[in-house]
Amino acid sequence: MSEAAGPAPAFTKDRPFPAKLTENRLLNRPGSAKETRHFVVDLRGSGLAYKAGDSLGVFPANAPAEVAEILERLGATGEELVSPAVLRTPTPLPLRAVLTDKLALSKPTRRALEVIAAKATNAAERERLASLLAPETKDDLPAWLEEREFVDLLAEFPSARFTPQEFVDLLRKLMPRLYSIASSSRVYPEEIHLTVAVVRYETNGRARGGVCSTFLGERADIGTTPVPVFVSDSHFGPPEDGARDCIMIGPGTGIAPFRAFLQDRVAAGARGRNWLFFGDQRRATDFLYEEEWQGYLASGVLTRMDTAFSRDQEAKIYVQDRMRENAAEFWAWLKGGAHVCVCGDAKRMAKDVDAALHAIIAEQGGMAPELAAEYVKQLKKEKRYQRDVY
Q: Within a 10 A sphere around the Cβ of 247, how many other Cβ atoms?
């Protein structure tokens, strides 16, 4: 008698689950300068589990138009078989498939430009490449490359001819993007919600888009297009003790995990108070999930909500300004054992919020800056100050 087969291995980063989208909804209202979308990802049949604070990894596909232009400039059909070194695949794969969802078409490197310089046959192109790669212009090259993707280099230096294999060996792997999960598995065990800012910009005279945000926003058809996903476990999460208060600071798409936190705390019957700080550009167009927050406020689940809409008045106001305005109460919550959770932009917002936190503790607690810094260190040690920043 043969042994019963064991359970199939779980879906992971190395073996993502081919999920489908069941919802793609614009959150901003007409007139907004932003495009923030709410996605629902169907997990049925995956066996994937998640908790509030986790992230969802999404493997995107590149834009077909960009792939088509690269193939045209290479003089390739897309059916050529290639074995990109970075993929370590046991068997060769068709070029079009590799360019579509295996390799990154952006962020060319100095090494790629050096290879192009070695292959260029046109005198004017060779002269320009020599100038770009000259030691005296070394500091200028990163900014020049930042404006370009690989398709630009093929267009600007057409005399450099590549075989499909030579070209793919210049490219890096297309990596998954991580998005904070905006739902609680206690409420939605078989789906995951995401709050995604669709990135659009222009460089070097070309319209560009964030690879994953435009994949989800434009190219993943509801119910049909496979969206390869995996759950990324996180240290970030609401207080384990439901009696603890929770202060949540999440401007823009940083609001995502706090939607999950509130759903989770309500479903778990947590008795601790909840205080939310949210900011964006304009209240009329960018108040993400406004109806949900108003509902939570009306029911008492959300004790307080302080908003900062930066462009609704002459002087810009941000979440850290609202923290300082409410310093006394913020300090009272902290002294009472509240957790502080921050999500969003790492470059500016998280630093400004951290500075505001230190200042509030120093001022309200009557502490010297060094003691306030020690207090913050202790908050981190106790996992009462957590950040999910990117």
A: 23
Other residues' Cβ atoms within 10 Å of the Cβ of residue 109: 14
Quote the pLDDT of residue 8.
Answer: 55
Give the pLDDT of residue 10. Answer: 85
Bridge-based pairing of strands 55-58 and 36-42 is unpaired
**Number of neighbouring beta carbons within 10 Å of residue 108:** 22
Identify the three-state secondary structure at position 277. strand
- Give the pLDDT confidence score for residue 2 in this predicted structure: 43
- Is residue 187 within 8 Å of 265, Cβ to Cβ? no
pLDDT, residue 9, reads 55
Q: Name the strand (E) or helix (H) holding 348.
A: none
Report the CATH superfamily, name and number, of domain 64-168: NADPH-cytochrome p450 Reductase; Chain A, domain 3 (1.20.990.10)
Contacting residues for 214 by C-beta, under 8 A, at least 6 apart: 63, 198, 199, 200
CATH annotation of 17-59+178-232: 2.40.30.10
Report the chain's mean pLDDT, rounded to a whole number: 96
Q: Where are the domains of the chain?
A: 17-59+178-232, 64-168, 246-389
Assign 349 to helix, strand or coil: helix
**Cβ(19)–Cβ(46) under 8 Å?**
yes
Q: What tens digit of pLDDT does each residue of 106-131 get? A: 999 999 999 999 999 999 999 999 99
The residue whose two tokens read 């088509």 is: 68
What type of residue is 79? Answer: E
Mean pLDDT value across residues 43-68: 97
What digits encode the pLDDT tens for the residues 241-294?
Answer: 999 999 999 999 999 999 999 999 999 999 999 999 999 999 999 999 999 999
Pick the CATH number of 246-389 from 2.60.120.280, 3.20.20.10, 3.30.300.30, 3.40.50.80: 3.40.50.80
Q: How far apart are CA 64 and CA 46, in angstroms?
A: 28
86: CB partners within 8 A, 6+ apart: 103, 171, 172, 173
Average pLDDT over residues 193-209: 97
Is residue 94 within 8 A of residue 80, CB to CB? The reply is yes
